[in-house]
Specification:
It is built from eleven helices and ten strands. It has a six-stranded mixed sheet with strand order 1-2-3-5-7-10, sandwiched between helices. Strands 4-6-8-9 form a four-stranded mixed sheet.
Length: 261
């Protein structure tokens, strides 16, 4: 009998269900949990499974390593064409928003670019003082196009202008102040605070939680449906541009881009 020469599938997102909670762990620390084609596909599959499991009342997104999510996988985006990647990221964010159960982010590390879109898409988000945040797109030659759909409606407008335009890093306390996350906590407080929120969610009815989430996300879902295609196209075009390709390769090669000199 011929041997099976297919390559083994690397698990980049670990899924576990316990006590009516589906915990999805981004587990690709070698590339800082970047949104590679494989990771996004696995995350969407886990979200779909959680949506279909009637016993699941809430979903928690967490991570291994020092980085929650670094955004797009620049090793893929640096190939010159990232159209499929931008579409997949848009579909993943839509899956979080449209999931009819609360989704909570548990953040203890750094969040950048597309990772900010994931945090913004979650219904509740907790972050510790070891976390940091930045919309780094403009520093690479692109824009926070797709992720604007899950962050602009959360952020104070002046804060959005400051951090979108500069790419400056800010901490969890600032993230809470400007509306990106629900609460900044210490590392010692994190799991107790998360458990308390999950206990409160379990006290609601499945129908009540689902319909309440639909009310809360109605305007966001309308924007995503109306603007999503155009923003996917914009993001793909920017990633493919000469300026962005220079910014991406400069980042990967740890040098200054030509346009910054």
């Amino acid at each position: 009998m011929p041997g099976d020469w297919s390559a083994p599938v690397t698990t980049l997102v670990r899924c576990e269900t316990r006590d009516q909670v589906a915990t999805l762990t981004l587990d690709s620390p070698y590339n800082r949990n970047a949104l590679s084609t494989a990771l996004v596909a696995q995350l969407r599959e886990c979200l779909r499974d959680a949506a279909e499991d009637a016993d699941v009342r809430a979903v928690v997104l967490r991570h291994t390593g020092r980085v929650f999510c670094a955004g797009a996988d620049l090793s893929e985006a640096g190939s010159g064409s990232f159209a499929q990647g931008t579409q997949a990221i848009m579909e993943m964010l839509t899956a979080i928003v449209e999931l009819d159960k609360p989704v909570l982010a548990r953040v203890t590390g750094h969040v950048r670019a597309g990772g900010m879109g994931i945090v913004g898409a979650c219904d509740l988000a907790l972050a510790t003082d070891s976390a940091s945040f930045a919309f780094t797109e403009a520093r690479l030659g692109v824009a926070p196009a797709i992720i604007s759909l899950t962050t602009l409606d959360q952020l104070d407008p002046r804060a959005a202008s400051r951090y979108y335009l500069t790419g400056a890093i800010f901490d969890a306390a600032v993230a809470a102040d400007i509306g990106l996350i629900t609460q900044a906590v210490t590392g010692d407080e994190l799991d107790a605070t998360l458990d308390a929120l999950l206990t409160e969610i379990r006290a609601t009815s499945p129908q009540g939680a689902a319909e309440t989430k639909r009310l809360l996300t109605a305007a966001r879902r309308e924007r995503m449906a109306a603007q999503g295609r155009d923003l996917v196209d914009l993001s793909a075009r920017l990633f493919a541009s000469e300026e962005a390709q220079e910014g991406i390769h400069a980042f990967l090669e740890r040098r200054e881009p030509a346009w910054r000199k």
